[in-house]
C-alpha cells in the first residue's frame, strides 16, 4: 500500500509540475485535460494517505496546487457564466446549466447537503447565506430550484464582477430573480446581519490555507446567531490535494454534527456544525428557524447502497458543550 500511495503522490506531483508551468489557467484543451487527469487521479478514496503526514516539500506542493485549482475553477465558472449570461433575451440561462462540465456533480452535492441538513433540522430555513458564491452560484441555484422553493438565498462574494455575472444568470428567471440576492463584500468585513440567517454555507475556496480558513470560521462564529447551522466543504484522502481540509479543531464555538465523505464523483466532503449557545429550536430575527437534532452517537458509519457496497462514510458526533 505504501508503494501504491507513493506512486499516486508522484503522479500528482508530475501533474502539478505541468499545471504550474501553464501560461494561463483559463479554459483550454490543455488546461481541461490536465485538470481532468488531476481530478481522476485524486478521486479514489481507497487509500490511507494522510496529507498531514507528508513531507514538508509535498505539503508545500499541495498548498500551491490547491491555489491553482481554485484559480482554474474560478476561470471555468467565469467562462461559462459569461456564455450563459449572454444568451438571447428570450432564453433563461438556468435552462442551459447542463452545459457546465460539473453541473451533475453540483446536483448530487446539492441533494446530499439538503438531505444532511434535513437530518439536523425540523424546520425549513427561511434565509440562507452562501459565502464565496462566485460567478456561477450553482449550490444556491440547485438548492433554490430543487429543494428549498420558499427560501431566500443571500450570496456573498468579494468580487463585484463575479456577482454581476451571477446576478445575470438568475435575472431572467421569474422565481430565482426574487429569491437570490447578491452582496459584494469580504466576509471578514460583514458584521451586521449574519445573525439573521438560519444556515450559512462557507465555500471550499474561501480560505485557501489553514490560517485564512480558520479566520473566516472564527468570524462567522462571532457573528452568527446561536443555534444557526454552518455548512462547510472539506476534503478527504487524495481529494485533499484539490481542496482544503476542515478539521473539528477548526470549529471552536460550534457543535460538530456530521462529517460526510462521499466516495463517488462528488469531490467535496460536507461538514455540518451548529453555533453553540442556542436552544434546539433557533429563533433567528425574531422568527422560528431550524430545529437541530444532535446525534447521540460518536462513530463512523458505512452507508450501504442496494448492492451492499460501501458508498459513503459519515462521522456523527454527540453534543460536546
Automatic annotation (TrEMBL):
Class of the enzyme per the UniProt entry, highest EC level: transferase
Record's keyword annotation contains Cytoplasm: no
Catalytically driven reaction(s): 3 S-adenosyl-L-methionine = nicotianamine + 3 S-methyl-5'-thioadenosine + 3 H(+)
Nucleotide-binding in keyword set: no
A Pfam match: NAS
Transmembrane segments: none
Keywords, in A-Z order: S-adenosyl-L-methionine, Transferase
EC numbers, comma separated: 2.5.1.43
Family membership noted in the UniProt record: Belongs to the nicotianamine synthase (NAS)-like family.
Biological role stated in the UniProt entry: Synthesizes nicotianamine, a polyamine which serves as a sensor for the physiological iron status within the plant, and/or might be involved in the transport of iron.
Name used for this protein in its record: Nicotianamine synthase
Amino acid at each position: 500500500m505504501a508503494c501504491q500511495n507513493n506512486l499516486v503522490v508522484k503522479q500528482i506531483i508530475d501533474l502539478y509540475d505541468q499545471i504550474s508551468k501553464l501560461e494561463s489557467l483559463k479554459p483550454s484543451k490543455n488546461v481541461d485535460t490536465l485538470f481532468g487527469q488531476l481530478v481522476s487521479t485524486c478521486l479514489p478514496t481507497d487509500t490511507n494517505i494522510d496529507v498531514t503526514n507528508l513531507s514538508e516539500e509535498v505539503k508545500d506542493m499541495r498548498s500551491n496546487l490547491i491555489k491553482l485549482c481554485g484559480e482554474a475553477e474560478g476561470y471555468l465558472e467565469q467562462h461559462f457564466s459569461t456564455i450563459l449570461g449572454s444568451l438571447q433575451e428570450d432564453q433563461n440561462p438556468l435552462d442551459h446549466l447542463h452545459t457546465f462540465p460539473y453541473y451533475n456533480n453540483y446536483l448530487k452535492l446539492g441533494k446530499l447537503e439538503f438531505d444532511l441538513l434535513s437530518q439536523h433540522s425540523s424546520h425549513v430555513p427561511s434565509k440562507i447565506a452562501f459565502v464565496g458564491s462566485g460567478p456561477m452560484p450553482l449550490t444556491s441555484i440547485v438548492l433554490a430550484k430543487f429543494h428549498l422553493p420558499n427560501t431566500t438565498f443571500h450570496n456573498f462574494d468579494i468580487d463585484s464582477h463575479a456577482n454581476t455575472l451571477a446576478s445575470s444568470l438568475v435575472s431572467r428567471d421569474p422565481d430565482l430573480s426574487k429569491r437570490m440576492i447578491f452582496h459584494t463584500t469580504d466576509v471578514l468585513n460583514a458584521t451586521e446581519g449574519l445573525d439573521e440567517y438560519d444556515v450559512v454555507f462557507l465555500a471550499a475556496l474561501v480560505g485557501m490555507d489553514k490560517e485564512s480558513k480558520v479566520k473566516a470560521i472564527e468570524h462567522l462564529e462571532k457573528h452568527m446567531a446561536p443555534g444557526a447551522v454552518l455548512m462547510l466543504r472539506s476534503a478527504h484522502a487524495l481529494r485533499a490535494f484539490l481542496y482544503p481540509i476542515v478539521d473539528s479543531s477548526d470549529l471552536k464555538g460550534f457543535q460538530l454534527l456530521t462529517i460526510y465523505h462521499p466516495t463517488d464523483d462528488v469531490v467535496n466532503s460536507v461538514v455540518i456544525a451548529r453555533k453553540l449557545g442556542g436552544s434546539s429550536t433557533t429563533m433567528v430575527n425574531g422568527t422560528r428557524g431550524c430545529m437541530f437534532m444532535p446525534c447521540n452517537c460518536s462513530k463512523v458509519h458505512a452507508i450501504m447502497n442496494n448492492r451492499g457496497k460501501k458508498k459513503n462514510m459519515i462521522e456523527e458526533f454527540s453534543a460536546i458543550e
